[in-house]
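Example 4.3 (complexes with small molecules)
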Amino acid sequence: MKNIKNAKWIRHPEVYVDQVIEFSKSFVTDSEVESATLEITSLGVYEAKINGKRVGDYIFAPGWTSYNKRLQVETYDVTGMIKANNHITVGVAPGWRGNYMAAPFHYAGNFIGAKEVALLCALEIVYKSGETQVIFSGKDWRARQSKVRYSNIYNGYIYDSDYFDRKPKAATEFPHPTEILIDRVGEKIVEVERVGAKKLIITPKGETVIDFGQNLTGYVEFTVKGEAGETVKIRHAEVLDAQGNFYTDNLRDAKAEAVFICNGRKQKYKPPYNFYGFRYICLEGFSDEIKPENFTAIVVHSEMKRTGHFECSDERINKLFSNIVWGQRGNFLDVPTDCPQRDERLGWTGDAQVFVKTAAYNYDVERFFIKWLGDLRADQTVWGTIPHVIPDVFGVDDECSSAWADAATVCPWQIYLSYANEQILKDSLDSMKEYIEYIKTRLVDGIWVQHWHFGDWLNLDGSSDQDCSKGTDKQLIATAFFIYSSEILIKSMKLLGEDASEVEALRNGSLEAFRRRYMKEGRIAPEYATQTACALAVRFGVSDDIAETAAQLNELVTECGHIKTGFVGTPYILHALSDNGYVKTAYDLVLREEYPSWLFSVKMGATTIWEHWDSFREDGSMWSTSMNSFNHYAYGCVGDWLYGDAAGINADESNPGYANIIFRPLTDERLDYVKASLETRKGLVKSEWKRENGKTTYTFVVPEESTATAYIGGKEYVLKSGTNEITE
Ligand code: BGC
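Answer. The structure with beta-D-glucopyranose bound is encoded below.
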């Protein structure tokens, strides 16, 4: 960042809510150009063009951060774009800044609804003569309304191809802090894939619908030729209802529409400022013949490198795996969001915490989380609490929910484990300490007591399935998570050479309290015994008899025959079982396809992970419209068990970043083979097992720079770099 802080923030002199403003400036260069650099950011999301050509491929720039505290600046090399006579235009739409609606929340009024959009930029041109010219945004720029007459992140857009604002105004300068500017820390958001229409459907209601065959996040590029003034509309939906009609009730207040006003000529259009979560589109008002090839879905997300792959002999599991990956793709759009479609699309901390481990297998998410954790720290409150969503659009609160707020410890720790990134621990250490200090103020005799937590969100222990957060005792969950988070803080402090004895004492106090209050003879006391309670006690090491509590968990699962956990217990239940000898029970849960299970959604035709175990039911009904996303990655956390246990690829805490690899594959006679690969910073890691003629052959690939050990059937094998084969 060199010049931008000397530029002036500009906006249109009038306030236009939910509109795109186009800023422009013409300029000439008078000698040969050596280099040209554009530094740019906006309040809202921008798309810049020089001489009619798009600058860069970053969409929805400058991304979504805690805007009042951190605003990213992008620097583009635009040398090849500069001519003698030049015209720069920058369209700015409200983007995430306009998401003040999130209607169902009582917090809605707090949304950061800086309704007017604004621009800040500096274009530096260095001439071969050695002279330099800098063009700053300022009142010599023009501002006009654009053809995008309406743009709202939840509702969509209205594009009038015939509109032209013939009365541009001089832009208005206004004060807005520049201390909040930072160079881009996250990944760019880009178009990553084009998906063609798979089917044209006329629904029983007579709607014209296109099926793209995959629930995805992005937008539709289309070609249309309509009479001048003719309006066509594209609506977006994730599913068709049981009758096969277009279904949008689950989008709640998000209209998710694209409205296009034709001008009599054939035009190809794609919206630069809006995204939708959809598999189906419904076409309205098209008078020319509808040809599926005129519609293409464009998938967008953060530019992350794909690192992990998994495959096994059961096609249903392979489909589940594909759904997990698509869930991540749909929700890793600069911020890890709960869902991409309804009037929410927020960076829910709990969801991110639940899924981060799987995410770090599927893709290289180091940079993605470095950015988001920067916002988490920026939004952490003076009390040490962590807001429910990051960026925080709900406003500060002096209480926070366990398992959600623990994103502050769990996420940095996972990034450290996967990428050996010690810096993230250094950067997060104070935030972790403040969070633990906050909980300390809520501890009564070692138990985290507070009026409110989300609890084991969406579990099946409550008396009805709409009882989202009942079930496992909330203080039990909170105290177990406090012990777990303290443990992460203790490990981080020791690693960074700090004395952790105070936190250890605090952790030990809660550990004893947990055991006193919740445990009886090595088991979770009967009045507190749920699958989630046992899974946490085992996995977080808070039980005083891990083997006994794991046996209890195994009994609870086998007695009822299925999973009952919600967001809190689901990431741990399989590990808690398979780590303690109950491999078959873990596989039973993974391979079950009746409701409730992961494969139930696969059986029902899902192409992403559902928010609920029964988002769609066999009788054709759905979970209530109040909260029913078909693209919610949280339960996709089963992915980390597939990589880490079924295939057996694990990082080692004491030598992270896969410098030492622990292979611990678990076989099951219902599968003939399992294979997974992971592109680590050390190189490609592979693990495969296959059963043939009563024997199982294991193949492990270890990168040159790594060490590795395999644990198979109670035996330990020290592996060499390259390919290792073991037959049992
Ligand atoms: C979101 C969740 C989130 C939850 C908090 C929901 O509306 O979609 O995924 O974690 O609220 O309980």
